């Protein structure tokens, strides 16, 4: 196992402690969230976790739940009236628990599920913690296809660079689970995350922004390469 794998596993195992018997669990998207899902699967299979229901934050996660043989536990938002805990990864985290998410283009469903949950637990490895965000990743923005050039122009007018995200092979823009496109935005100057989240969200055509407010995050679990964890 690489040191990143060890760190991810340490964070994911700690997050399991937030899952109680009978809980409705929001399951995040990405490699770290999948480590959590596989660990949860192991505990469900050996009877250590009972009667949970799983609400996926993306089609990718939904497929993984099915592939693990857990389709009977799969639920969609319209089939539950609350989510007890959501466990999700992030691309970047700052000291106030603000997040950049959407590296996997799932930010809209992630924000719906994660913000809805009574407890929102973020699992990351140490390399994703920064003093200021965005640090190394652009801010992903989900936009309706009709509007992408207009949103791009509006944000570049304010300052920064905006790129339409393409899939591997560049055959065309990637299309989200909601039938939309993703713009990746690198602001020219430092941003205040919650102000930028609100401002970008108000541009017509924007569906959701991959900035998540730290006030909505209950806990960040940071896995370290030696297998230890720290929390914020
Ligand atoms: C997907 C996400 C992911 O949570 C984020 O990209 C982190 O993924 P990984 O754990 O694979 O680094 O926001 O939209």
UniProtKB/TrEMBL annotation:
* Reaction(s) catalysed (UniProt annotation): aldehydo-D-ribose 5-phosphate = D-ribulose 5-phosphate
Q: Which Pfam families match?
A: Rib_5-P_isom_A
Q: Spell out the catalytic residues.
A: 110 (proton acceptor)
- Tree of life domain: Archaea
InterPro entries in alphabetical order = NagB/RpiA_transferase-like, Ribose5P_isomerase_typA_subgr, Ribose5P_isomerase_type_A
Query: Which Gene Ontology molecular-function terms are recorded?
Result: isomerase activity
User: Which positions in this protein are listed as binding substrate?
Assistant: 29-32, 88-91, 101-104, 128
Q: What is its EC number?
A: 5.3.1.6
Record pathway: Carbohydrate degradation; pentose phosphate pathway; D-ribose 5-phosphate from D-ribulose 5-phosphate (non-oxidative stage): step 1/1
Q: Enumerate the UniProt keywords alphabetically.
A: Isomerase
Checking HAMAP family in the record gives:
Rib_5P_isom_A (MF_00170)
The record describes its quaternary structure and partners as: Homodimer.
Give the similarity note. Belongs to the ribose 5-phosphate isomerase family.
In terms of PANTHER family, this protein maps to: RIBOSE-5-PHOSPHATE ISOMERASE (PTHR11934)
What is the role of the protein in this entry? Catalyzes the reversible conversion of ribose-5-phosphate to ribulose 5-phosphate.
Name listed for the protein in its UniProt record: Ribose-5-phosphate isomerase A
The gene for this chain is rpiA
């Amino acid at each position: 196992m690489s040191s990143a794998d060890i760190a991810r596993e340490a964070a994911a195992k700690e997050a399991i402690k937030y899952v109680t018997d009978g809980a409705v669990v929001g399951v995040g998207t990405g490699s770290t969230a999948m480590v959590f899902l596989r660990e949860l699967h192991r505990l469900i299979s050996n009877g250590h976790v009972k009667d949970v229901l799983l609400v996926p934050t993306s089609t990718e996660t939904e497929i993984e739940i099915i592939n693990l043989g857990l389709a009977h536990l799969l639920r969609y938002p319209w089939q539950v009236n609350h989510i007890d805990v959501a466990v999700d990864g992030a691309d970047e985290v700052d000291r106030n628990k603000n997040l950049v998410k959407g590296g996997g283009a799932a930010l809209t469903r992630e924000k719906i599920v994660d913000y809805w949950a009574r407890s929102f637990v973020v699992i990351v490895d140490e390399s994703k913690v920064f003093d200021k965000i965005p640090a190394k990743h652009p801010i992903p923005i989900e936009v309706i296809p009709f509007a992408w050039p207009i949103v791009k122009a509006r944000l570049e007018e304010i300052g920064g660079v905006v790129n339409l995200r393409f899939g591997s092979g560049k055959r065309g823009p990637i299309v989200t689970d909601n039938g939309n496109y993703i713009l990746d935005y690198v602001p020219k100057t430092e941003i205040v995350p919650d102000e930028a989240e609100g401002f970008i969200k108000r541009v017509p055509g924007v569906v959701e922004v991959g900035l998540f407010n730290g006030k909505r995050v209950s806990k960040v679990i940071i896995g370290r390469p030696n297998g230890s964890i720290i929390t914020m």
